[in-house]
Amino acid sequence: MLSQLDDNTRPATMAGLFELAPAKINLALHVVGRRADGYHLLESIVTFADHGDRLDFAPAERDRFSFSGRFAPALSTGSGKHADNLVLKARDRLRSLLQDQGLAAPPVAIHLEKNLPVAAGIGGGSADAAAALRGLLRLWDVEVSAPELDRLALELGADVPMCLRSEPMLVRGIGEDVTLLPDFPSLALVLANPLVGVSTPQIFRRLERKNNPPIGPKGEGDWVDFLGMLRNDLEPPARSLVPEIAQVSAMLDAEDALLTRMTGSGATCFGLFETMDTARGAASALQRRKPDWYFQAVQTAGHKSGTSS
Predict the structure, then answer these.
(1) Where does the chain bind ATP (predicted)?
(2) What is the DSSP string of 196-256?
(3) Closest C-alpha among 149, 211, 184 to residue 48
């Protein structure tokens, strides 16, 4: 059962069990090769914001899925085994895994508050799927081994395993090779999206080189300086498809961002700012200039020091 509800009728009102699905930010993304099966090999420095979608969970007599939020109208609402929404896929595949092990996975009401733009390069659907897995394991009071959960997450999408952790990390391969970065700083960013659709397959088709230089070792310098030496290899082809990406980057630069770059396959860009106060001021100024676009000041995961204060 699918429906769009207001905040007063979502399952949190009944249960209080919820999971955040934070925005995923590719601070750098290098395309370093291509496998024989066509998948591109990536290296990416990834972090996660304190802003994102929210999923609420409650026991129910039958499965229900409802949604609200600014970007709820853009959700795919397929149902059953052919569901397009990753939350429903996560629910159904986790339930199947548990039932194969003789564990109960009774009906559940899930509410998704969709605060992140859809298909925006910030892992919204993948973060939702990861949050669904975490929340359902808590609601059903069951455990799955880490390897099993990682395999299930990867089946749902290349970004889902990293979203399960939602910590700063270096990601290689197609998303399955994850190295946590415990010393990575928390950053003050502004996320900006012109709300123009971007076709990821088209971007990869326009990518001139598939074997670009890897990220390489950081060395002893500052993380922010190191990020400045890196790049997003998908940004040039994305800009050729969506001119608004260049426009939104220029707007962030005009607000004195220390670093501006596209995240993922776009069209979301981020601007790095000295403090959260300056990030919030920049986001407010940009929203006044473009009220129909998406701007959000965020604090990322990591140690709160340096430029993150």
Answers:
(1) 117-127
(2) ----HHHHHHH-S-SS-------TTS-HHHHHHT--BTTHHHHHHH-THHHHHHHHHHHTT
(3) 184
Domains of the chain, earliest start first = 2-179 (3.30.230.10), 182-308 (3.30.70.890)
pLDDT in tens, 22-65: 999 999 999 999 998 888 999 999 999 999 999 999 999 999 99
102 marked among binding-site residues: no
Residue 6: phi, psi to the nearest 5?
Answer: -90, 170
Q: Using CA atoms, how far apart are residues 113 and 6, in angstroms rounded to an integer?
A: 9
Model confidence pLDDT, tens digit, residues 27-38: 999 999 999 888
Write the single-letter amino acid at 6: D
Cα distance between residue 236 and residue 232, in whole Å: 8
- State the catalytic residues: 24, 159
**Is 72 a known ligand-binding residue?**
no
Give the span between the Cα atoms of 309 and 303, in whole angstroms: 10
